[in-house]
Description:
alpha+beta, 4-stranded antiparallel sheet, 3-stranded antiparallel sheet, 16 helices
Amino acid sequence: MLTDTQVAGLRAKDKPYNINDKNPALKPGGLAVRVRPLKSDKTGKGSKDWIYTYTVDNARTGGPQKKRISLGPYPAVSLSQARTKAADKAAELANGIDPQQARQERKETARLAANRATLKQLLEVYLTGLETRAQESGRGAISAKSIRSIVERYVYTHDNLPDMPATEVSSTDISSLLKRTVDNRKQVKRAGVMVDVGSGNKTTQKRLRQALHAAYAEIIRRRFDPALSALDFGEIQYNPVSPVQLEQRGKIAVSVKTKHSLSEDDVRSVWNYLRTTDKNESVIGLVKLCMLTGQRPGDIRQVKWKHWIRKDNRLEIPAEITKNGRDHTVYLGERAQSVLAGLLKVTGSQEHIFAGRIGKSKWTGKPVRAETVSHVVHQISTGAGVAKFDLRGDMRRTWKEMAARSGVSFELRNRIQNHAFTDVSSRVYDKYDYLAEKAHAMAQFEHYFDSMLLEHKEPKVIQIHAHGVSI
Protein backbone atom coordinates (compact mmCIF):
# COMPACT_ATOMS: atom_id res chain seq x y z
CA MET A 1 0.00 0.00 0.00
CA LEU A 2 1.14 3.52 -0.76
CA THR A 3 2.35 6.02 1.83
CA ASP A 4 2.21 9.82 1.75
CA THR A 5 6.01 9.92 1.41
CA GLN A 6 5.98 7.59 -1.57
CA VAL A 7 3.29 9.60 -3.36
CA ALA A 8 5.10 12.88 -2.73
CA GLY A 9 8.39 11.44 -4.05
CA LEU A 10 7.06 10.07 -7.33
CA ARG A 11 8.86 11.60 -10.34
CA ALA A 12 7.52 12.22 -13.81
CA LYS A 13 8.69 10.18 -16.78
CA ASP A 14 8.52 10.66 -20.52
CA LYS A 15 5.10 9.05 -20.54
CA PRO A 16 2.26 8.98 -18.00
CA TYR A 17 2.21 6.01 -15.65
CA ASN A 18 0.06 4.65 -12.77
CA ILE A 19 1.07 3.37 -9.33
CA ASN A 20 -1.56 1.18 -7.66
CA ASP A 21 -2.37 1.54 -3.96
CA LYS A 22 -3.05 -2.21 -3.65
CA ASN A 23 -5.50 -1.65 -0.81
CA PRO A 24 -7.72 -4.79 -0.49
CA ALA A 25 -10.48 -2.78 1.18
CA LEU A 26 -11.14 -0.97 -2.12
CA LYS A 27 -12.02 -4.06 -4.15
CA PRO A 28 -13.62 -4.95 -6.57
CA GLY A 29 -11.82 -1.94 -8.08
CA GLY A 30 -8.58 -0.28 -7.11
CA LEU A 31 -7.05 3.09 -6.30
CA ALA A 32 -4.05 4.41 -8.25
CA VAL A 33 -2.08 7.64 -8.53
CA ARG A 34 -1.47 8.76 -12.12
CA VAL A 35 1.73 10.73 -12.79
CA ARG A 36 1.92 12.91 -15.90
CA PRO A 37 4.96 14.81 -17.25
CA LEU A 38 4.84 18.61 -17.70
CA LYS A 39 7.04 20.29 -20.32
CA SER A 40 7.55 23.37 -18.15
CA ASP A 41 8.18 21.39 -14.95
CA LYS A 42 11.81 21.82 -13.80
CA THR A 43 11.34 19.82 -10.60
CA GLY A 44 10.63 16.59 -12.40
CA LYS A 45 7.57 15.92 -10.21
CA GLY A 46 5.06 16.44 -13.02
CA SER A 47 1.38 16.42 -12.07
CA LYS A 48 -0.42 13.74 -10.09
CA ASP A 49 -4.07 12.85 -9.75
CA TRP A 50 -6.05 10.01 -8.23
CA ILE A 51 -8.08 7.55 -10.27
CA TYR A 52 -10.30 4.64 -9.36
CA THR A 53 -10.12 1.76 -11.84
CA TYR A 54 -12.66 -1.04 -12.09
CA THR A 55 -14.16 -3.56 -14.51
CA VAL A 56 -17.80 -3.96 -15.53
CA ASP A 57 -19.62 -6.06 -18.11
CA ASN A 58 -19.98 -4.33 -21.47
CA ALA A 59 -23.68 -3.98 -22.22
CA ARG A 60 -23.08 -4.25 -25.98
CA THR A 61 -20.55 -7.10 -26.23
CA GLY A 62 -21.16 -8.86 -22.94
CA GLY A 63 -17.42 -8.99 -22.25
CA PRO A 64 -15.43 -7.20 -19.54
CA GLN A 65 -14.83 -3.46 -19.91
CA LYS A 66 -12.21 -1.54 -17.97
CA LYS A 67 -13.16 1.90 -16.72
CA ARG A 68 -11.67 4.61 -14.57
CA ILE A 69 -12.99 7.64 -12.80
CA SER A 70 -11.04 10.66 -11.54
CA LEU A 71 -11.03 11.35 -7.79
CA GLY A 72 -9.18 14.67 -7.88
CA PRO A 73 -5.58 16.04 -8.09
CA TYR A 74 -2.78 15.45 -5.63
CA PRO A 75 -1.92 17.12 -3.21
CA ALA A 76 -5.30 18.93 -3.13
CA VAL A 77 -6.76 15.47 -2.44
CA SER A 78 -4.56 13.61 0.04
CA LEU A 79 -3.99 9.85 0.11
CA SER A 80 -6.49 9.31 2.93
CA GLN A 81 -9.12 11.44 1.17
CA ALA A 82 -8.55 9.51 -2.06
CA ARG A 83 -9.08 6.22 -0.23
CA THR A 84 -12.33 7.51 1.25
CA LYS A 85 -13.60 8.49 -2.21
CA ALA A 86 -12.46 5.16 -3.63
CA ALA A 87 -14.31 3.32 -0.85
CA ASP A 88 -17.52 5.14 -1.90
CA LYS A 89 -17.02 3.96 -5.50
CA ALA A 90 -16.34 0.40 -4.30
CA ALA A 91 -19.61 0.49 -2.36
CA GLU A 92 -21.47 1.58 -5.51
CA LEU A 93 -19.93 -1.32 -7.45
CA ALA A 94 -20.91 -3.76 -4.71
CA ASN A 95 -24.51 -2.54 -5.13
CA GLY A 96 -24.44 -3.05 -8.89
CA ILE A 97 -23.98 0.66 -9.71
CA ASP A 98 -21.48 1.84 -12.32
CA PRO A 99 -19.63 4.77 -10.60
CA GLN A 100 -18.93 6.51 -13.91
CA GLN A 101 -22.54 6.28 -15.03
CA ALA A 102 -23.75 7.38 -11.58
CA ARG A 103 -21.51 10.46 -11.75
CA GLN A 104 -22.88 11.38 -15.18
CA GLU A 105 -26.43 11.01 -13.90
CA ARG A 106 -25.65 13.25 -10.91
CA LYS A 107 -24.18 15.88 -13.22
CA GLU A 108 -27.26 15.73 -15.43
CA THR A 109 -29.53 16.00 -12.41
CA ALA A 110 -27.56 19.02 -11.19
CA ARG A 111 -27.73 20.59 -14.66
CA LEU A 112 -31.49 20.11 -14.82
CA ALA A 113 -31.88 21.43 -11.28
CA ALA A 114 -29.91 24.55 -12.23
CA ASN A 115 -32.37 25.18 -15.09
CA ARG A 116 -35.51 24.21 -13.18
CA ALA A 117 -38.08 26.89 -12.45
CA THR A 118 -37.75 28.17 -8.90
CA LEU A 119 -40.31 28.64 -6.17
CA LYS A 120 -40.27 32.37 -6.92
CA GLN A 121 -41.05 31.74 -10.58
CA LEU A 122 -43.89 29.39 -9.60
CA LEU A 123 -45.37 32.02 -7.31
CA GLU A 124 -45.02 34.71 -9.98
CA VAL A 125 -47.12 32.61 -12.36
CA TYR A 126 -49.84 32.45 -9.70
CA LEU A 127 -49.61 36.10 -8.62
CA THR A 128 -49.56 37.42 -12.19
CA GLY A 129 -52.64 35.32 -12.93
CA LEU A 130 -54.44 36.78 -9.91
CA GLU A 131 -53.60 40.33 -10.96
CA THR A 132 -54.60 39.74 -14.58
CA ARG A 133 -57.96 38.25 -13.60
CA ALA A 134 -58.58 41.12 -11.20
CA GLN A 135 -57.85 43.66 -13.93
CA GLU A 136 -60.08 41.91 -16.46
CA SER A 137 -63.01 41.36 -14.10
CA GLY A 138 -62.73 44.57 -12.12
CA ARG A 139 -62.79 42.74 -8.80
CA GLY A 140 -60.22 41.30 -6.42
CA ALA A 141 -57.49 43.87 -7.07
CA ILE A 142 -57.06 44.68 -3.39
CA SER A 143 -56.92 41.00 -2.46
CA ALA A 144 -54.33 40.28 -5.17
CA LYS A 145 -52.22 43.20 -3.98
CA SER A 146 -52.44 41.98 -0.38
CA ILE A 147 -51.41 38.42 -1.29
CA ARG A 148 -48.43 39.68 -3.29
CA SER A 149 -47.36 41.82 -0.34
CA ILE A 150 -47.44 38.81 2.00
CA VAL A 151 -45.50 36.62 -0.44
CA GLU A 152 -42.86 39.28 -1.06
CA ARG A 153 -42.44 39.92 2.67
CA TYR A 154 -42.19 36.34 3.92
CA VAL A 155 -41.10 34.23 0.92
CA TYR A 156 -38.96 36.44 -1.30
CA THR A 157 -36.88 37.64 1.67
CA HIS A 158 -36.01 34.07 2.68
CA ASP A 159 -32.31 33.21 2.36
CA ASN A 160 -32.68 30.06 0.24
CA LEU A 161 -36.25 29.15 -0.71
CA PRO A 162 -37.03 31.71 -3.46
CA ASP A 163 -34.21 30.38 -5.68
CA MET A 164 -34.76 26.71 -4.84
CA PRO A 165 -36.23 24.59 -7.69
CA ALA A 166 -39.95 24.33 -7.05
CA THR A 167 -39.75 20.53 -7.38
CA GLU A 168 -37.33 20.34 -4.44
CA VAL A 169 -39.38 22.37 -1.96
CA SER A 170 -40.56 19.98 0.74
CA SER A 171 -43.42 20.08 3.22
CA THR A 172 -40.81 20.75 5.92
CA ASP A 173 -39.66 23.82 4.00
CA ILE A 174 -43.26 25.03 3.75
CA SER A 175 -43.80 24.48 7.47
CA SER A 176 -40.68 26.50 8.34
CA LEU A 177 -41.76 29.23 5.96
CA LEU A 178 -45.20 29.54 7.54
CA LYS A 179 -43.61 29.68 10.95
CA ARG A 180 -41.80 32.86 9.89
CA THR A 181 -45.10 34.75 9.74
CA VAL A 182 -45.55 34.52 13.51
CA ASP A 183 -41.91 34.36 14.60
CA ASN A 184 -41.50 38.10 14.24
CA ARG A 185 -44.29 38.78 16.72
CA LYS A 186 -43.22 40.11 20.08
CA GLN A 187 -45.06 40.96 23.25
CA VAL A 188 -45.13 44.41 24.80
CA LYS A 189 -47.05 45.75 27.75
CA ARG A 190 -49.83 48.17 26.95
CA ALA A 191 -52.11 49.50 29.64
CA GLY A 192 -50.76 46.82 31.96
CA VAL A 193 -51.62 43.99 29.53
CA MET A 194 -49.16 41.99 27.41
CA VAL A 195 -50.19 42.11 23.75
CA ASP A 196 -48.68 40.83 20.50
CA VAL A 197 -47.29 43.41 18.09
CA GLY A 198 -45.62 43.09 14.71
CA SER A 199 -46.64 42.34 11.16
CA GLY A 200 -47.12 38.58 11.43
CA ASN A 201 -50.29 36.92 12.73
CA LYS A 202 -52.44 33.84 12.30
CA THR A 203 -54.48 35.46 9.51
CA THR A 204 -51.32 36.25 7.55
CA GLN A 205 -50.11 32.69 8.11
CA LYS A 206 -53.39 31.30 6.84
CA ARG A 207 -53.40 33.52 3.74
CA LEU A 208 -49.79 32.62 2.94
CA ARG A 209 -50.57 28.91 3.18
CA GLN A 210 -53.59 29.36 0.91
CA ALA A 211 -51.47 31.23 -1.64
CA LEU A 212 -48.71 28.61 -1.62
CA HIS A 213 -51.21 25.77 -1.95
CA ALA A 214 -53.08 27.51 -4.78
CA ALA A 215 -49.82 28.29 -6.61
CA TYR A 216 -48.68 24.65 -6.60
CA ALA A 217 -52.18 23.44 -7.49
CA GLU A 218 -52.23 25.76 -10.52
CA ILE A 219 -48.87 24.51 -11.81
CA ILE A 220 -49.95 20.87 -11.37
CA ARG A 221 -53.21 21.63 -13.19
CA ARG A 222 -51.43 23.50 -16.01
CA ARG A 223 -48.45 21.14 -16.40
CA PHE A 224 -49.26 20.65 -20.11
CA ASP A 225 -50.14 24.30 -20.76
CA PRO A 226 -48.08 25.60 -23.75
CA ALA A 227 -48.12 29.06 -22.11
CA LEU A 228 -45.75 27.69 -19.45
CA SER A 229 -43.41 25.91 -21.86
CA ALA A 230 -40.65 28.49 -21.26
CA LEU A 231 -40.47 27.40 -17.62
CA ASP A 232 -39.26 23.93 -16.69
CA PHE A 233 -41.07 22.91 -13.51
CA GLY A 234 -40.08 19.27 -13.87
CA GLU A 235 -42.41 16.62 -12.53
CA ILE A 236 -44.32 18.08 -9.58
CA GLN A 237 -46.17 14.95 -8.51
CA TYR A 238 -47.90 16.31 -5.41
CA ASN A 239 -48.64 19.55 -3.63
CA PRO A 240 -46.06 19.94 -0.81
CA VAL A 241 -48.38 22.35 1.00
CA SER A 242 -51.21 19.83 1.45
CA PRO A 243 -49.70 17.91 4.41
CA VAL A 244 -48.97 21.16 6.28
CA GLN A 245 -51.82 22.11 8.61
CA LEU A 246 -51.87 25.17 10.81
CA GLU A 247 -51.55 24.50 14.52
CA GLN A 248 -53.71 26.09 17.17
CA ARG A 249 -53.21 25.47 20.88
CA GLY A 250 -51.14 22.40 20.16
CA LYS A 251 -53.81 20.77 18.01
CA ILE A 252 -54.19 20.43 14.27
CA ALA A 253 -56.82 22.93 13.21
CA VAL A 254 -58.52 22.80 9.81
CA SER A 255 -60.05 26.11 8.91
CA VAL A 256 -63.71 25.68 8.01
CA LYS A 257 -65.77 28.76 7.30
CA THR A 258 -68.90 28.92 9.41
CA LYS A 259 -71.99 28.53 7.24
CA HIS A 260 -75.27 29.92 8.45
CA SER A 261 -78.39 31.62 7.22
CA LEU A 262 -80.41 34.47 8.68
CA SER A 263 -83.61 33.82 10.58
CA GLU A 264 -86.78 35.69 9.69
CA ASP A 265 -86.21 37.98 12.68
CA ASP A 266 -82.69 38.66 11.40
CA VAL A 267 -84.00 39.44 7.92
CA ARG A 268 -86.52 41.89 9.34
CA SER A 269 -83.83 43.55 11.47
CA VAL A 270 -81.46 43.91 8.53
CA TRP A 271 -84.16 45.24 6.20
CA ASN A 272 -85.36 47.80 8.72
CA TYR A 273 -81.77 48.92 9.29
CA LEU A 274 -81.22 49.28 5.54
CA ARG A 275 -84.28 51.54 5.30
CA THR A 276 -82.86 54.04 7.81
CA THR A 277 -79.07 53.94 7.40
CA ASP A 278 -77.18 56.61 5.46
CA LYS A 279 -74.26 54.39 4.53
CA ASN A 280 -72.97 53.84 0.97
CA GLU A 281 -76.10 53.90 -1.26
CA SER A 282 -74.61 51.52 -3.81
CA VAL A 283 -73.88 48.89 -1.17
CA ILE A 284 -77.27 49.34 0.48
CA GLY A 285 -78.98 48.83 -2.89
CA LEU A 286 -76.79 45.81 -3.61
CA VAL A 287 -77.63 44.19 -0.27
CA LYS A 288 -81.34 44.77 -0.80
CA LEU A 289 -81.24 43.26 -4.28
CA CYS A 290 -79.32 40.23 -3.00
CA MET A 291 -81.93 39.71 -0.30
CA LEU A 292 -84.74 39.94 -2.87
CA THR A 293 -83.23 37.91 -5.72
CA GLY A 294 -80.65 35.54 -4.17
CA GLN A 295 -78.05 36.41 -6.81
CA ARG A 296 -74.28 36.27 -6.50
CA PRO A 297 -73.07 39.69 -5.35
CA GLY A 298 -70.03 39.38 -7.61
CA ASP A 299 -72.35 39.09 -10.62
CA ILE A 300 -74.88 41.84 -10.00
CA ARG A 301 -72.29 44.22 -8.52
CA GLN A 302 -71.03 44.75 -12.06
CA VAL A 303 -74.35 45.18 -13.88
CA LYS A 304 -74.93 48.39 -15.80
CA TRP A 305 -78.02 50.47 -16.24
CA LYS A 306 -78.33 49.19 -19.82
CA HIS A 307 -78.80 45.68 -18.41
CA TRP A 308 -82.01 46.73 -16.65
CA ILE A 309 -84.88 46.03 -19.07
CA ARG A 310 -87.37 48.19 -17.20
CA LYS A 311 -90.42 47.54 -19.35
CA ASP A 312 -90.08 43.78 -18.79
CA ASN A 313 -89.05 44.04 -15.11
CA ARG A 314 -85.82 42.09 -15.53
CA LEU A 315 -82.03 42.27 -15.40
CA GLU A 316 -80.07 40.73 -18.25
CA ILE A 317 -76.68 39.78 -16.81
CA PRO A 318 -74.18 39.09 -19.63
CA ALA A 319 -71.97 36.00 -19.62
CA GLU A 320 -68.73 37.98 -19.23
CA ILE A 321 -69.60 38.96 -15.66
CA THR A 322 -71.32 35.81 -14.39
CA LYS A 323 -69.39 33.23 -12.41
CA ASN A 324 -70.28 30.35 -14.71
CA GLY A 325 -69.88 32.33 -17.93
CA ARG A 326 -73.55 32.07 -18.98
CA ASP A 327 -76.08 34.79 -19.79
CA HIS A 328 -78.59 35.03 -16.98
CA THR A 329 -82.01 36.65 -16.70
CA VAL A 330 -83.19 37.86 -13.29
CA TYR A 331 -86.86 38.84 -12.95
CA LEU A 332 -87.65 41.60 -10.48
CA GLY A 333 -90.69 41.86 -8.28
CA GLU A 334 -92.21 45.23 -7.36
CA ARG A 335 -90.01 45.65 -4.31
CA ALA A 336 -86.83 44.88 -6.27
CA GLN A 337 -87.88 47.31 -8.99
CA SER A 338 -88.41 50.04 -6.41
CA VAL A 339 -84.87 49.45 -5.11
CA LEU A 340 -83.44 50.14 -8.57
CA ALA A 341 -85.77 53.06 -9.15
CA GLY A 342 -84.56 54.66 -5.92
CA LEU A 343 -80.93 54.01 -6.82
CA LEU A 344 -81.48 55.56 -10.25
CA LYS A 345 -81.69 58.97 -8.55
CA VAL A 346 -78.24 58.44 -7.03
CA THR A 347 -76.15 56.57 -9.62
CA GLY A 348 -78.27 57.16 -12.73
CA SER A 349 -75.55 59.40 -14.20
CA GLN A 350 -73.03 56.53 -13.99
CA GLU A 351 -72.57 53.51 -16.23
CA HIS A 352 -72.88 50.97 -13.42
CA ILE A 353 -75.98 50.59 -11.26
CA PHE A 354 -73.91 49.98 -8.14
CA ALA A 355 -71.30 52.61 -8.91
CA GLY A 356 -68.22 53.17 -6.80
CA ARG A 357 -67.08 56.53 -5.60
CA ILE A 358 -64.46 58.30 -3.55
CA GLY A 359 -65.88 60.40 -0.77
CA LYS A 360 -69.39 61.79 -1.29
CA SER A 361 -69.13 63.23 -4.77
CA LYS A 362 -66.25 61.83 -6.87
CA TRP A 363 -67.24 58.74 -8.88
CA THR A 364 -64.65 56.15 -9.88
CA GLY A 365 -66.30 55.15 -13.16
CA LYS A 366 -66.23 51.53 -11.97
CA PRO A 367 -68.57 49.36 -9.88
CA VAL A 368 -68.30 49.61 -6.11
CA ARG A 369 -65.31 47.60 -4.92
CA ALA A 370 -65.87 44.14 -3.44
CA GLU A 371 -63.77 45.15 -0.42
CA THR A 372 -66.09 48.13 0.19
CA VAL A 373 -69.10 45.83 0.01
CA SER A 374 -67.60 43.43 2.59
CA HIS A 375 -66.71 46.31 4.91
CA VAL A 376 -70.19 47.91 4.77
CA VAL A 377 -71.97 44.55 5.12
CA HIS A 378 -70.02 43.96 8.33
CA GLN A 379 -71.22 47.36 9.59
CA ILE A 380 -74.77 46.46 8.59
CA SER A 381 -74.72 43.24 10.61
CA THR A 382 -73.43 45.17 13.62
CA GLY A 383 -75.95 47.99 13.22
CA ALA A 384 -78.86 45.57 12.77
CA GLY A 385 -77.78 43.56 15.81
CA VAL A 386 -77.44 40.22 13.99
CA ALA A 387 -74.58 37.72 13.63
CA LYS A 388 -71.98 38.63 11.03
CA PHE A 389 -73.00 37.44 7.56
CA ASP A 390 -71.77 37.71 3.99
CA LEU A 391 -73.71 38.15 0.76
CA ARG A 392 -71.95 35.47 -1.26
CA GLY A 393 -72.87 32.51 0.91
CA ASP A 394 -75.04 33.40 3.89
CA MET A 395 -77.48 35.70 2.07
CA ARG A 396 -77.83 33.35 -0.92
CA ARG A 397 -78.46 30.53 1.52
CA THR A 398 -81.04 32.67 3.35
CA TRP A 399 -82.86 33.50 0.12
CA LYS A 400 -82.96 29.84 -0.86
CA GLU A 401 -84.56 28.88 2.46
CA MET A 402 -87.09 31.70 2.26
CA ALA A 403 -87.93 30.82 -1.35
CA ALA A 404 -88.50 27.21 -0.28
CA ARG A 405 -90.90 28.36 2.43
CA SER A 406 -92.71 30.49 -0.15
CA GLY A 407 -93.35 27.39 -2.25
CA VAL A 408 -90.72 27.76 -5.00
CA SER A 409 -89.46 24.36 -6.16
CA PHE A 410 -85.86 23.27 -5.65
CA GLU A 411 -85.18 23.19 -9.40
CA LEU A 412 -86.56 26.69 -9.95
CA ARG A 413 -84.57 28.04 -7.01
CA ASN A 414 -81.40 26.67 -8.62
CA ARG A 415 -82.30 28.17 -11.98
CA ILE A 416 -83.08 31.57 -10.44
CA GLN A 417 -79.70 31.53 -8.66
CA ASN A 418 -77.95 30.56 -11.93
CA HIS A 419 -76.56 27.25 -10.72
CA ALA A 420 -75.10 25.06 -13.45
CA PHE A 421 -76.98 21.88 -14.33
CA THR A 422 -74.41 19.21 -15.23
CA ASP A 423 -76.61 16.21 -16.03
CA VAL A 424 -76.83 15.10 -19.65
CA SER A 425 -80.54 15.84 -19.90
CA SER A 426 -80.09 19.47 -18.88
CA ARG A 427 -76.91 20.09 -20.89
CA VAL A 428 -77.89 18.37 -24.11
CA TYR A 429 -81.65 18.05 -24.40
CA ASP A 430 -83.42 20.61 -22.22
CA LYS A 431 -83.25 23.90 -24.18
CA TYR A 432 -86.33 25.48 -22.59
CA ASP A 433 -85.62 28.92 -21.04
CA TYR A 434 -88.01 28.69 -18.02
CA LEU A 435 -88.47 32.47 -18.14
CA ALA A 436 -92.19 32.44 -17.41
CA GLU A 437 -91.71 30.05 -14.50
CA LYS A 438 -88.92 32.16 -13.02
CA ALA A 439 -90.99 35.34 -13.33
CA HIS A 440 -93.91 33.70 -11.52
CA ALA A 441 -91.59 32.31 -8.83
CA MET A 442 -90.07 35.74 -8.11
CA ALA A 443 -93.53 37.28 -7.72
CA GLN A 444 -94.43 34.41 -5.43
CA PHE A 445 -91.27 34.98 -3.35
CA GLU A 446 -91.92 38.70 -2.97
CA HIS A 447 -95.44 38.03 -1.76
CA TYR A 448 -93.94 35.82 0.96
CA PHE A 449 -91.23 38.40 1.71
CA ASP A 450 -93.78 41.20 2.13
CA SER A 451 -95.77 39.07 4.54
CA MET A 452 -92.66 38.04 6.45
CA LEU A 453 -91.64 41.66 7.00
CA LEU A 454 -94.84 42.20 8.99
CA GLU A 455 -93.39 41.51 12.43
CA HIS A 456 -95.19 39.06 14.77
CA LYS A 457 -97.53 37.95 12.00
CA GLU A 458 -97.52 34.64 10.24
CA PRO A 459 -96.56 34.97 6.57
CA LYS A 460 -99.24 34.16 4.07
CA VAL A 461 -98.51 31.00 2.12
CA ILE A 462 -99.90 30.67 -1.37
CA GLN A 463 -101.76 27.46 -2.06
CA ILE A 464 -100.27 25.84 -5.17
CA HIS A 465 -101.76 22.72 -6.71
CA ALA A 466 -99.23 20.47 -8.39
CA HIS A 467 -100.21 17.07 -9.81
CA GLY A 468 -103.41 17.19 -7.86
CA VAL A 469 -101.70 17.71 -4.48
CA SER A 470 -102.37 20.83 -2.42
CA ILE A 471 -99.17 22.15 -0.78
